[in-house]
Amino acid sequence: MASSASRSTTMDLAYIAVFAALIIVLGFLSIPVGGAGVPIVLQNAAIILCGLVLGCRRGGLTALLVLLIGCALPVLAGGRTTLQALAGPTAGYLVGYVISAFVAGFIAYRARTTTSSLTLMLSIAAVLGLLIQYLCGMGGLMLRSGLSLSAAAVAQAPFLLPDIAKIIVAVLIAAGVHSAFPDLMGSSRTRHA
């Protein structure tokens, strides 16, 4: 029993480390957009993908790990550290990263393993994860940039189409991963979620 639990913990740590590395690598790709100082990035979709694939606990821990590493190293979009990002207009998005990974993972791991049910739940989880990132981001823009609610909402507009495309890809990847590795979500669903 202890061996099985130890192996499970080791696998969890490996999954978290691999996804944290993926999120960090994707942080080097960013396109500045609009006047609010928020770039188009791939990190936000990778955060949601990690929740979809790893579940709420491991997904949330992965997002936290990236932010912790970011306290010492410039691993966030635009080569910023977590502390730099928290001091700027993107602070809310970072909070949204952790919450969205947790929520997306929670919803995704409640799916039945049939293909249509899984795809539907992954889609719902991804959209809600993205919505959480937007809402938290809007809150950060209001606090850090002094924008009104309507101005913060309008600032999200340039990101809608790219983010929808990224979410579609994330759902397809997550569905493929769960089809190839059903044990990732299988009988141990509650332990890993």
Overview of this protein structure:
By secondary structure, the chain is mainly alpha-helical. The chain has a single domain (2-192), classed as Arp2/3 complex 21 kDa subunit ARPC3. The chain is built from 8 helices and 2 strands; from the N terminus they run αββααααααα. The protein has helices at 2-26, 43-72, 82-86, 91-108, 115-145, 149-154, 160-180, 189-192; strands at 30-33, 38-41. Strands 1-2 form a two-stranded antiparallel ribbon. A hairpin with a 4-residue loop joins strand 1 and strand 2 (38-41). The longest helix has 31 residues, at 115-145. The radius of gyration is 17 Å and the shape is globular. The chain starts with a helix and ends with a helix.
User: What average pLDDT do the residues reach?
Assistant: 89
Largest sheet, spatial ordering of strands: 1-2
CATH class, anyone? Answer: Mainly Alpha
Give unreliable regions as ranges. 187-192
Helix content bin: over 70%
Count every beta strand, where a strand is a DSSP E run of 2 or more residues.
2
Q: SSE order in H/E notation?
A: HEEHHHHHHH
Structure characteristics:
8 helices; Arp2/3 complex 21 kDa subunit ARPC3; transmembrane; membrane; disordered C terminus; 73% helix; transport; globular; two-stranded antiparallel ribbon; mainly alpha
SSE layout and pairing:
Blueprint: H1 2-26, E1 30-33, E2 38-41, H2 43-72, H3 82-86, H4 91-108, H5 115-145, H6 149-154, H7 160-180, H8 189-192
Keywords: Cell membrane, Membrane, Transmembrane, Transmembrane helix, Transport
GO molecular function, one term: biotin transmembrane transporter activity
InterPro entries: BioY (IPR003784)
